[in-house]
Design brief:
The complex is a heterodimer of chains A (about 140) and B (about 130). Chain A is built from one helix and seven strands. Chain A has one domain: Elongation Factor Tu (Ef-tu), domain 3, CATH 2.40.30. The longest helix of chain A has 9 residues. With about 140 residues, chain A is mainly β. Chain B has one domain. The longest helix of chain B is centred in the middle third of the chain and has 13 residues. In chain B, the strands form three sheets. In chain B, strands 2, 5, 7, 8 and 9 form a five-stranded antiparallel beta sheet that branches. In chain B, strands 1-6 form a two-stranded parallel sheet. A two-stranded antiparallel ribbon of chain B has the order 3-4. Classes of the chains: A mainly beta (about 140), B mainly beta (about 130). The interface between A and B is medium-sized, with 13 and 16 residues.
Chain lengths: ~140, ~130
Amino acid sequence: MTVKTSATALLKFKVSSAASYFTIAKVRDVRLDISRDALETTGIGQRDRTYAYGIRGTSGSGTLLYDPSDTGTADLMNQILSDTETLSGLQLVLDTGSSDGTLSGDALITAAGPGVSVGDLVSVPISFTISGKPTGAF
Amino acid sequence: MAVTFPNIEPTSRSFTAPKWPTSGLTTQSGVTTRRLWGSRPSQAELRLTFTNVADDNAALIMAAYHDAKGATTDLSLPSIIFNGASGNLAGWLNTASTGAGMKWFFSEEPPSVESVAPNRSTVTVRLVAELRLT
């Protein structure tokens, strides 16, 4: 087993009505943050803080390169303009050569802010929040 | 027979000392006179918070409240309730230093349980120490 690089990673997206995920063609960077709350349980007689697990939350962000002909990119960007309340699907694949390292979830696209500078590519920073527990495993 | 309060360490504790039975009068000249009507203080108050405890521990507190029939039956408080206090202070907090006759009861205000996460709750309890004949 070797350490994986961005060459084996993919970001996929599907609108709620789609049957399958579309790979987003050009992704500059993406980050998935999964966290669990730490609930403090320190008693009044203790000198060191103690904790218990609380609720898990999953969100993330990334930067896409704008390609209107790419279904995954366009669908994801258009989701921020959609009035639908149905959640989309987002899938992060860390290793295309293995069934491990794929995490999927029902996603809310919470931000998409395309921007461009002189002499640069049109990039689209995005943010998303996963509703519920992500499926899959690292 | 006293109901034993569950052996759970609170995460915060607030104590109000018992009051002495007095009445006072301030005259027009500004002089205050105060009269003591009894030999023992009463009505101490203990507010306990059990933050993020396991639901099973929250259930033990609710069971004690049920067994005590609210504010009817007195409570036996375990020493863990006064954890973190020095021995001298604990004596005042548990009213042992105040003198005989004071007993702890649930107050008229029932315990409250706030569910904060699966299997985790925050329980708030208010106890009062009273002088009772039985």
